[in-house]
């Protein structure tokens, strides 16, 4: 990979994260591929997941610009919002979360942690959130300015040209992982919900001329939306951070068809895959992101999409706290108690 002029970052994540073989899964599938998982859920115990890699660069930019407040947005159970709330507490930023959806009667999962971290939370009905999000950001940024504070607005998932640096760095880490594990070529698979992780890995693979294909399994919207989003994030990166060498051609790959009932909602089969993998490998996925993507990957593997013998590396982006609000979807409790 050519030398990149990385912007400043605040070290928050415990890196490098492990690359772990899934040998029991590979044997159970009778697969000609060897399966691995990149444990980015272990970037930190409580602020777990891919969001932390992005926030290292975002919070550094906030400090550099003299901001004392972070404003961001997402669903009620947003992993990114939870990570921002906890990072803000750790670094001394005020945090304001603009959440899509009414406040539930009881805070659970990520929302519980948002409250524990002291974030200010504003709930908006789905329709208003979608229609007015830019205006909501501007409103709250102006409110803080009137109070003498300076707020940085962070888009959904910190997925833009700044947050993209997190997974450009991760692509270099993955390349080193592959070399250490003697993996000559691979498919990299991830869930894609706001597009930034996929964009960073895709651009990183192209910049490094790595022997990998990057696949995003969308958990909302559709293939066309994410193809456009990856291109937009990379274009934003190019505009903000012009490098000495031109950006090489890249190939964005999105596997559609596993969104199920919609964002944050999963099919019965996804919950079964989550339980099966936990029992087989001790690996815990969530029903919003990783569970959908991993289930989709297994289905596509069986269908022959990955028709070569290259290894498959699933990038585990975290999200475990999203399990708890959906505990009612698992019906195994009675089977394992006496």
Summarize the structure.
The protein is of the alpha/beta class and 338 residues long. The chain is built from ten helices and ten strands.
Structural description of this entry:
- With 338 residues, the chain is of the alpha/beta class.
- It folds into two domains: 19-48 and 160-336, Rossmann fold (3-Layer(aba) Sandwich); 51-158, Rossmann fold (3-Layer(aba) Sandwich), CATH 3.40.50.
- 41% of the residues lie in helices and 15% in strands.
- The chain is built from ten helices and ten strands.
- The chain has helices at 23-29, 51-64, 79-91, 109-116, 126-146, 165-181, 196-207, 223-240, 268-281, 290-303; strands at residues 19-21, 35-38, 69-75, 94-100, 120-124, 151-153, 186-192, 212-218, 254-255, 311-315.
- Strands 1-2-10-7-8-9 form a six-stranded mixed beta sheet. A four-stranded parallel beta sheet has the order 5-4-3-6, sandwiched between helices.
- Helix 8 links the parallel strand 8 and strand 9.
- Helix 6 (165-181) crosses helix 7.
- The N and C termini lie far apart (56 Å).
- The model has no long low-confidence stretch (mean pLDDT 95).
Which descriptors would you attach to this protein?
single chain; 338 residues; alpha/beta; Rossmann fold; six-stranded mixed sheet; four-stranded parallel sheet; 10 helices; 10 strands; globular
């Amino acid at each position: 990979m050519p030398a990149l002029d990385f912007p400043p970052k605040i070290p928050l994540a415990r890196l490098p994260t492990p690359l772990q073989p899934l040998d029991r899964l590979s044997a159970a599938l009778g697969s000609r591929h060897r399966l691995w998982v990149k444990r980015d859920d272990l970037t930190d115990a409580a602020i777990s997941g891919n969001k932390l890699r992005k926030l290292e660069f975002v919070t550094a930019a906030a400090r550099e610009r003299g901001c004392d407040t972070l404003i961001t947005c997402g669903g009620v159970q947003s992993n990114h919002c939870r990570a921002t709330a906890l990072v803000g507490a750790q670094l001394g930023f005020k945090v304001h979360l603009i959440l899509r959806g009414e406040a539930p009667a009881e805070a659970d999962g990520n929302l519980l942690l948002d409250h524990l971290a002291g974030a200010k939370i504003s709930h908006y009905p789905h329709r208003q959130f979608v229609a007015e999000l830019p205006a909501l950001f501007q409103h709250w940024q102006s409110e803080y300015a009137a109070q003498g504070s300076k707020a940085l607005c962070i888009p959904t998932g910190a997925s833009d040209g700044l947050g993209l640096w997190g997974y450009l760095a991760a692509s270099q880490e993955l390349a080193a992982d592959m070399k250490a594990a003697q993996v000559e070529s691979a498919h990299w698979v991830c869930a894609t919900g706001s597009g930034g992780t996929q964009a960073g890995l895709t651009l990183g693979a192209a910049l490094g001329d790595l022997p990998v294909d990057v696949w995003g399994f969308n958990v909302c919207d559709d293939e066309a939306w994410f193809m456009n989003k990856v291109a937009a994030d990379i274009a934003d990166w190019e505009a903000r951070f012009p490098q000495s060498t031109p950006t090489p051609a890249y190939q964005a790959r999105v596997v559609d068809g596993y969104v199920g009932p919609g964002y944050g909602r999963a099919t019965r089969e996804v919950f079964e895959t989550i339980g099966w993998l936990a029992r087989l490998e001790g690996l815990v996925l969530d029903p919003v992101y990783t569970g959908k993507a991993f289930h989709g990957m297994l289905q596509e593997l069986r269908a022959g999409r990955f028709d070569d013998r290259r290894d498959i590396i699933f990038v585990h982006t975290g999200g475990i706290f999203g399990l708890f609000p959906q505990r009612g979807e698992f019906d195994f409790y009675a089977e394992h108690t006496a």
